[in-house]
Amino acid sequence: MTFEFTDMTTSITSFLRLSCLPTVAVALALGAATSPVPALAAPGWTASWQASPQPVWGQDFLFPLNLPRTLRDQTVRQVARLSLGGPRLRIVLSNQYGTAPVTVGRTTLALPSASAPDVAGAVLASSLRPVTFGGREQATIAAGASLISDPVVLPVPALAQVVVSLYLPAVTPMTTFHWDGRQTGWIVAGDQAAATTLDTANVLPTTARALLSAIAVETDPAAPTVAVLGDSITDGATASLDTDHRWPDFLAARLAPHGVAVVNAGISGARLLSDGMGVNALARWERDVLAQPGVRTAIVMLGINDIAWPGTAFARQAQRPTVQQLVAGYRQLVAQAHARGVRVIGATLTPFEGALPGTPLADYYSIEKDALRAQLNERIRAGGIFDAVIDFDAVLRDPAHPSRMAPRYDSGDHLHAGDEGHRAMAGSVDLSILLPAAGDRHGAMPGLDSMHR
């Protein structure tokens, strides 16, 4: 069989200028404290969409790159669904893992064409906007850096899609990308950034994201953002393509009417303590979460790859971490977040017995690994690590076989949730711990504030 992981399952501080679902899946933890969060009363920039940058891997890696290793005289068109909308937008391009500058010849922003939904990459002509960087259409992204665009006037409602097109005129090695975008994009010949419909004679569809790493919107007043740090379960592996059916997407739909944005900082193959298909969580926490404009709450769902990778083709000789080491990693994330006035909600790890059958990672699960998962979940539930806990294990597990995912939520690979599982995860979250308290000038979360008192 042909095995692909998609079938299994920047620091932007300058932005600061600028069906029965369990209802008890969120439980307040004990003992952690956060600093008061300043009120967000004036207009400002808020993170509304994200695709965390990853370094590309070598040709001998287990999974395909899903992107050409070099682009030249080509346009990349990508679709992104925002969580909150606003009158103006800014995009972020990342060359985080590049060793040489990247030249972008032209960039545009537009809305997808409602009259031609089945035409690949078609955009609404009246919505097409040039994107500039420091007043210039052509821009250079320095090696290891990010590039923030000038504001673009394009009123967009919450939960709307936007289309970003990048023309790369010179030889451009693809060193920074996001592997599993769960959204179809297109790579076409020549400069088609301003085209309303693409000339698809030599089109290359892709679900990977090239260079585009974030989109912020201007809101009045400035809106709070919830950032979700996770692995392939959060990144949405096995969620239906082109449908925005990852659990953070469903959570965004629930929070949008309350004026709260959600950004997805999941990376398939991510780990808490060690590098995986992206750098470890401790290394990217600042970039992907704390530095995102408007973030006041983070949700962390990480650790299953730390537990399950050792002994597999990913890390044959590696040793599994201990519960103590994993908890220490969580505590470091929380300490750094609290120093920035950001509260952190932890999520239990979901069942994975029988994971990835018939694949090169069929040894991902073992009884010993599951015992470590159970121990870690008990530590998370016991409190004292996070400000609150979302019990996704309780949401997805099969009551008759708790080490397995319930069939109705299982994508079929026994590790990743299907669309209904993602919907259930988002539906189980108690929104009261993500919404500012009414009338509280500090924007404190009612549940957490009561806990600390």
Number of helices: 9
Class computed from helices, strands and strand pairing: alpha+beta
Output the strand order for the largest sheet.
1-24-23-22-20-21
Strand content bin: 25-35%
Q: Mind describing the biggest β-sheet?
A: 6 strands, mixed
Counted beta strands: 26
* Low-confidence spans: 1-40, 438-453
Residue share in helix? 10-25%
Shape: globular
Rg result: 21 Å
Average pLDDT reading:
90
Question: What distance separates the N and C termini?
Answer: 57 Å
Give an overview in words.
The chain is an alpha+beta fold. It has 9 helices and 26 strands. It has helices spanning 232-235, 247-255, 281-290, 304-308, 323-339, 367-382, 392-396, 419-427, 446-452, and strands spanning 26-28, 44-50, 54-55, 70-71, 74-81, 86-94, 102-104, 106-110, 129-130, 139-141, 146-148, 152-156, 161-168, 172-173, 176-178, 185-189, 204-206, 209-210, 212-219, 225-230, 261-266, 295-301, 343-347, 388-390, 397-398, 401-405. The protein has a 6-stranded mixed β-sheet with strand order 1-24-23-22-20-21, with helices on both faces. The chain has a 6-stranded antiparallel β-sheet with strand order 9-8-13-5-16-17, with no helix packed on it. Strands 2, 6, 11, 12 and 19 form a 5-stranded antiparallel β-sheet that branches. A hairpin with a 2-residue loop joins strand 25 (397-398) and strand 26.
